[in-house]
């Protein structure tokens, strides 16, 4: 089963996935309608993917950086602007599943961003706790000093 249409759709892991109002298309092709093995070949740098891209991105470069796990470069090339329409993969004579690479790279970028944000929040919490503990320690020392001074005055 393919949800989302022939170009932008993705294969469902099983048939028990619920259908929501955001599902615009469900395809149930037979095994004869879909080729089981589409072998990816090397990019021949024909440029058809760049011509087909409605977002005017550079699919070849995005694919190279996605394969090399160069996520900073992908962000510089605006991978997030890719609408995952599948036009680039459709016109690719080398049958490179470009959108698959982009989806994986986007997921990794999202994960790294979330981890970095979580680490930053943890760092801020730690620094705030440390400052609070130092403040409480100083207050405690001041109380002890004041109590000691009061006892000296009483003597």
Automatic annotation (TrEMBL):
Transmembrane annotation, as ranges: none
Region (Disordered): 129-155
SUPFAM superfamilies for the chain: alpha-helical ferredoxin
Domain of life: Bacteria
Keywords linked to the UniProt accession: 4Fe-4S, Iron, Iron-sulfur, Metal-binding, Repeat
Coiled coil: none
Residue ranges annotated for the 4Fe-4S ferredoxin-type domain, each copy included: 32-63, 73-102
Classification via Pfam families: Fer4_7
Single GO cellular component term: membrane
Any GO MF annotation of the entry: electron transfer activity
InterPro entries recorded: 4Fe4S_Fe-S-bd (IPR017896), 4Fe4S_Fe_S_CS (IPR017900), Ion_transpt_RnfC/RsxC (IPR010208)
Protein name per UniProt: 4Fe-4S dicluster domain-containing protein
Upper taxonomic lineage: Bacteria, Pseudomonadati, Pseudomonadota, Gammaproteobacteria, Vibrionales
């Amino acid at each position: 089963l393919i949800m989302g249409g022939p170009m932008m759709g993705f294969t469902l892991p099983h048939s028990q996935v619920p259908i929501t109002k955001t599902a615009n298309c469900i395809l149930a092709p037979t095994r004869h309608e879909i080729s089981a093995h589409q072998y990816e070949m090397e990019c021949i740098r024909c440029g058809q993917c760049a011509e087909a891209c409605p977002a005017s991105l550079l699919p070849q470069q995005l694919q190279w950086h996605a394969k090399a796990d160069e996520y900073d470069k992908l962000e510089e090339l605006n991978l997030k602007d890719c609408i995952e329409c599948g036009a680039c993969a459709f016109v690719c004579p080398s049958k490179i599943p470009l959108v698959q690479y982009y989806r994986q790279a986007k997921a990794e970028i999202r994960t790294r961003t979330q981890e970095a944000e979580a680490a930053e929040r943890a760092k801020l919490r730690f620094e705030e706790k440390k400052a609070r503990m130092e403040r409480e320690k100083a207050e405690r020392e001041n109380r002890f000093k004041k109590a000691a001074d009061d006892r000296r005055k009483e003597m």
